[in-house]
Amino acid sequence: MTETYDVVIVGGGAAGLSAALVLTRARRRVVVVDAGNPRNAPAAHLHGYLSRDGLDPRELLRVGRAEIEGYGGEFVEDVVTRIRHDRSVELAGGSVLAARRVLVTTGLTDELPEIPGVRELWGSDVLHCPYCHGWEVRDQPIGVLGGSPLTMHQAQLIRQWSKDVTLFPHTMDLTDDDLANLRTRGVDVVPGKVERLLTEGHRLRGVRMADGTEVPRSAVFVGPRFVPKDALLGTLGCERDENGQVRVDRFGRTSVSWVWAAGNAVDLSAQLVSAAGDGSRAAMSINAELVHEGVYTAA
Questions:
Q1: Conformation bin of residue 166: beta by default, left when phi > 0, alpha when psi is -120 to 50
Q2: What are phi and psi for residue 161, nearest 5 degrees?
Q3: CATH number at 3-110+225-297
Q4: What end-to-end distance do the CA atoms of the chain give, in Å?
Q5: Domain spanning 113-221: which CATH class is it, in words?
Q6: Where residue 244 falls among pLDDT bands split at 50, 70, 90?
């Protein structure tokens, strides 16, 4: 039997849960389908979320789910394999959910540099966002691993949290202007290719270069490649912008009239708190349209 909902939300992170909270409080029948693999799972604490700074990310999700269930929201632990044009949502477990509207908040994947030690320490001593983690490693010896288009900006930005910042260009070629700007900012540069990150007791202790040089560091920032999890939106034929990202308006509406998207699936730079805001805004837009639809269909 196919279950019918006002809104099916795909993804149960900050954006999806915030949307679900708004919609359940608006007395909509809502289900959140989530596979249980949040992007920030490796992190012990979340930061920059007003009144929740330092909280375990899993606790935020637990509390959010409890609030939504208190208003009658439902959760399904499963993977959405397809969203059909008849507004049916197919799940890997075999269930099919019918939706008047769909909100996709599937997030993104961080593609990390293939350097030994990076993946093992990801979320603890290997970091990417100084606004999220800079305070926790302030005044420590910090490294920045090159290879991202944002490497130069990242190195200069992180200098704000520590006087001891070293850039490892790795495979990057720095110009004379780059080197001059780094010197002006007080950032050291260790040329050459990085061989691996060195660990001791599951903590970072340094960076080993291909020539055998070892540079002590207690934290390293990297620039992952952000890959949006937008395949479901692509299959539906949602329009993309010049950068290949799914295009949404300021309320999260896609080019498919009954589909919205929010969070990192459509905004690669969204922080936890801004993703939550995007989800909330999308939810109000969805509810407003359902109200408008009801005026003409008595639904």
A1: beta
A2: -100, -15
A3: 3.50.50.60
A4: 21
A5: alpha beta
A6: very high
